[in-house]
User: Which sequence fits this backbone?
């Protein structure tokens, strides 16, 4: 999410997040949570949902009937990948559900978000995660002059494995489905620091 909001494309949103982070009222916190939801949607942490089909059914997929047979495994791709053929097929950036999908819009209906799953097995941690990520965003945005470190150091490293992006860990000795290498730091170093801040 930080990688997203510290990109040139979302500079305007970051400026607003910084402004909100300095306020201390319920309205600003609620707005920051909406930035979190949009940030999670556009930088999906959980890449997929899988289900086993219980009985034969035809699922409506944007006007197209998809035949599912009992026992089939259904894979729902949530992510927006750099692989071209998947780019337009990600649920989190579906223009039918999220008009103008690359835009951060704070008025999207909460029921449309699917990055915490849907139904009985949806994410147990979602309520805590929303609070935690809002607090994290607020803390980081309050730091003075937060920005991306220059050059390679300021880029979140990933490789594409199969259908998904996997992220290099900080010491580059392993990879993870979750980006863990981004760290706000107060000085530049040779580690995989993604963002730096100066006071
Ligand atoms: C940004 C952080 C997180 C994201 C994006 C996320 C996303 C998800 C997704 C997509 C699912 C699968 C839902 C499905 O198959 O329908 C899931 C399941 C689950 N999550 Fe999370 N999760 C996050 C953090 C957490 C945390 C912090 C906890 C624990 C406190 C947690 C606990 C669970 C549990 C227990 C399930 C399984 C629920 C079930 O099968 O009934 N998650 N999560």
Assistant:
């Amino acid at each position: 999410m930080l990688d997203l909001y510290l990109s040139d494309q979302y500079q305007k949103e970051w400026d607003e997040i910084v402004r909100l982070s300095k306020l201390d009222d319920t309205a600003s916190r609620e707005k920051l949570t909406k930035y979190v939801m949009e940030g999670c949607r556009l930088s999906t942490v959980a890449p997929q949902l899988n289900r086993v089909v219980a009985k034969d059914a035809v699922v409506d997929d944007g006007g197209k009937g998809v035949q599912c047979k009992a026992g089939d495994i259904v894979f729902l791709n949530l992510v927006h990948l750099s692989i071209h053929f998947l780019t337009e097929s990600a649920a989190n950036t579906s223009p039918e559900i999220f008009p103008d999908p690359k835009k951060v819009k704070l008025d999207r209906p909460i029921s449309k978000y699917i990055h915490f799953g849907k139904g009985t097995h949806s994410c147990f941690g979602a309520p805590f995660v929303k609070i935690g990520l809002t607090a994290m965003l607020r803390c980081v945005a309050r730091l003075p002059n937060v920005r991306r470190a220059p050059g390679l150091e300021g880029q979140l490293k990933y490789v594409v494995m199969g259908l998904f992006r996997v992220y290099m860990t900080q010491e580059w000795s392993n990879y993870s489905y979750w980006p863990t290498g981004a760290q706000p730091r107060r000085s530049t170093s040779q580690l995989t620091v993604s963002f730096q801040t100066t006071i």
Observations:
- The first strand starts at residue 48 and ends at 52.
- The chain has five helices and ten strands.
- Strands lie at 48-52, 57-61, 64-68, 73-77, 146-148, 158-161, 164-168, 175-176, 184-185, 195-197.
- Residues 144-199 form one domain.
